[in-house]
Write a structure and sequence with these properties.
heterodimer, A: six-stranded mixed beta sheet, four-stranded mixed beta sheet, B: alpha+beta, three-stranded antiparallel beta sheet, WH-like_DNA-bd_sf (chain B)
């Protein structure tokens, strides 16, 4: 059982069953599409075709109540021909442009006859109706000022088909593009999409509104719902197609930016290396140092490991946007994958290599006596070397510098820690502890030993280097130098201001913070240094509470005032029990 | 290269000339033109003719008028215009020249063999 529809073909009324109707509609739509190059003549041609179909159908119908079915439509399409048959070869009419000025629109092709590289510029020139020279000049400017010209050229090369047949070549050089033509083209495209969506919605609502449909809901619920779902599916697919294009464009955009950045990075790195600025300007990832794999190869690996996935994304985006772009061949796919995996393995190897270099801690200790006259005051100073580092201030930090010591590149670091301790021995001495990491204990120890560190005892001045030098390859081995100055009891020292940032947790009776210690005199006691001339303000809180001359404390326990002056003590306490005075 | 394509191309080329020739003896409506072409085996499917007719009409070679029909939809009667007649005359000479030339070439080839 089939529903019938009434249609009007060329002014004549026909009963047609639903399936036949849909078949006929599809057929006419297909013809409309294949004639879309000629929007004005199209309606007239379609009208003629409808008339002819009406004529053919009325010949077939003997009885007025007869319903047209699918086989009738099949017969008709056999007589009329496939939609492709309606295409008249453009060449037949190409010389008649003077009297059909609107029937051909220009298309963008690459011009293989007037090409420099891929014929993109010449094609664009035809399209915009200007001389190819101007397009090429514009392109050169783009290449020099933004660099993106190269990439855009490649994209266009891939996207734009080459003009092969005479028809295409003529189409390429067709009518000039003006605003109204562009507008017309856009409107057509838009109408095409919107009418497809509208058709889908209409047929869905038609089904729901139809009373017959409602009556037969119970019997036909399944197929009816299925058809609605199908229609909804079609709408979704149309919407999805539009979104797909957007996503494709986004993919191309992101991938293109990354690729441009990569290419520029590689370019600038290459020129910096070649001009010999070297390591002072280029900051490589840590594991590029002291690796078995040469630096340039690691850079190529990085380039490939990042570049290949984005290149693939780029091609994917292009394929979403245009069917012209062919997929890679299997060989290309496999070799891209292979190169990518090799690059990843190379980087992974370098990473493991780097990690194992830091696997063990190595230490090298050395001890040197310093001879002091007990009555002397020892001045402790940190010294730098202005010829090595270009930093103005000498202070401890975790950075590194590349310096040249007698034309040899070395690592310059200020990671020097200074501590001062008491000793039972009669003589003062300095213990230097050098630390480094390495891939086994032996190399770690050797690397530690190779650290160059010096100090001098000059008259009453102990001059400690505020830096050390090391092989530049040891940059990431966390090297440092710990200096401990051991002093017998009663030795008096003066800490120079230069020691401020190098002191590391120096024990002292008054609990003075490291950074407050310099510029003062200290005497070594059994419990550590004791400041001789310090301002009380810098004393630690713990010490002040116990020994300060005046102490005021207000907290949840109450108020406590303590005065301490030459062994005479006074204390006032106010708490929940009341006030006590001692 | 498909033989079918070349055949279709050849037919399409002369189709225009034939449509004009059919109309030189007086006006005809679309179905008449179609049936004459079909009888001459120049046409496999009808679809090809409609765009051709429209374009010839737009080119000013043909004109048409509507006529009511008792058995079906109204009919479009085509007729040659003055330019169409001149055009057809030119095509006539071109055609005979072409036939002669083709005969000459094809016969030459067969005698060489």
């Amino acid at each position: 059982m089939n529903k019938t529809i009434n249609i009007n073909l060329g002014g004549i009324f026909f009963h047609i069953d639903e399936l036949a109707y849909q078949k006929l509609k599809r057929y006419l739509d297909a013809i409309r599409k294949s004639l879309s190059d000629d929007p004005q003549g199209r309606d007239e041609i379609l009208n003629d075709i409808e008339l002819r179909i009406g004529e053919l159908l009325s010949e077939r119908i003997v009885n007025e109540r007869q319903v047209i079915n699918e086989s009738d439509i099949d017969e008709i399409t056999k007589i009329m021909g496939k939609p492709e048959d309606y295409l008249v070869d453009e060449e037949l009419f190409e010389d008649q442009q003077s009297y059909r000025p609107t029937s051909s629109s220009k298309k963008l092709f690459r011009d293989n006859e007037d090409k420099f590289l891929g014929g993109v510029c010449a094609g664009l020139a035809h399209y915009f109706g200007i001389d190819a020279l101007w397009v090429r000049i514009l392109w050169l400017i783009l290449v020099f000022f933004f660099g993106t010209g190269i990439l855009i050229y490649i994209i266009l090369w891939i996207l734009i088909p080459v003009a092969e047949t005479t028809a295409e070549k003529l189409q390429m050089k067709g009518e000039p593009v003006n605003i109204s033509n562009i507008e017309r083209k856009i409107r057509e495209e838009f109408q095409d999409v919107s009418s497809r969506v509208k058709d889908g919605v209409n047929s869905a609502t038609e089904r729901v509104k139809n009373p017959e449909f409602k009556r037969n809901v119970e019997n036909r619920a399944k197929s009816g719902i299925q058809e609605i779902i199908d229609t909804l599916g079609k709408i979704l697919i149309t919407i999805f197609n539009i979104f797909g294009k957007l996503i494709g464009a986004l993919l191309i955009f992101i991938a293109a930016i990354t690729l441009i950045a990569l290419i520029f990075g590689a370019f600038s790195w290459g020129s910096i290396e070649m001009l010999g600025f070297g390591n002072d300007y280029v900051h490589y990832p840590p594991f590029f140092f002291d690796s078995v794999i040469p630096t340039w190869l690691l850079l190529v690996f990085t380039f490939l490991a990042v570049g290949i996935p984005f290149f693939v994304l780029f091609m994917l985006g292009l394929r979403i946007l245009s069917n012209n772009v062919k997929s890679f061949s299997t060989t290309t796919k496999l070799s891209l994958l292979g190169v990518w995996i090799i690059a990843l393995l190379g980087l992974g190897f370098a990473g493991i290599n780097f990690a194992t270099q830091k696997a063990y801690d190595g230490v090298y200790n050395q001890t040197e006596d310093i001879v002091l006259t007990p009555t002397d005051t020892l001045k402790i100073k940190m010294v730098g070397d202005e010829n090595l580092s270009n930093r103005k201030e000498l202070r401890r930090n975790y950075g590194y510098e590349s310096v040249y010591d007698k034309d040899v590149q070395k690592l310059y670091s200020t990671r020097v820690y200074v501590d001062i301790k008491t000793t039972d021995k009669e003589n003062a001495f300095v213990k230097i502890r050098k630390e480094s990491e390495g891939n086994n204990r032996l190399t770690a120890n050797k690397d530690a030993e190779s650290i160059e560190y010096q100090f001098n005892l000059n008259d009453k001045n102990l001059l400690l280097n505020g830096y050390f030098l090391s092989n530049f390859k040891n940059k990431f081995k966390d090297q440092s130098v710990d200096i401990t100055i051991y002093l017998p009891v009663n030795t008096i020292i003066y800490l120079d201001n230069s020691t401020r940032s190098f002191l590391n947790d120096v024990d002292n009776i008054q609990n003075i913070h490291d950074r407050d210690m310099p510029k003062n005199y200290y005497k070594m006691t059994e419990n550590g240094l004791e400041c001789l001339n310090c301002n009380e303000a810098i004393f630690g809180d713990d010490y002040k509470e116990k020994n300060g001359s005046f102490n005021l404390k207000l907290d949840e326990n109450g108020l406590k005032i303590k005065v301490n002056d030459n062994n005479k003590n006074a204390e006032v306490n106010i708490d929940e029990t009341g006030m006590t005075i001692e | 290269m498909k033989i079918e394509n070349t055949k279709a191309q050849m037919r399409k080329g002369v189709l225009e000339y034939c449509i004009l020739s059919i109309l030189q003896h007086g006006d005809a409506y679309t179905s008449e033109i179609l049936s004459q072409l079909k009888d001459a085996k120049l046409l496999v499917v009808e679809g090809t003719v409609y765009p051709l007719l429209t374009r010839l009409k737009n080119a000013g070679l043909l004109e048409y008028r509507w006529e009511e029909s008792t058995s079906g939809p109204p009919r479009k009667y085509y007729d040659l215009t003055e330019t169409g007649k001149i055009f057809l005359n030119e095509l006539n000479t071109t055609w005979s020249e072409l036939v002669e030339a083709v005969n000459l070439v094809t016969n030459n080839k067969s005698t060489e063999k």
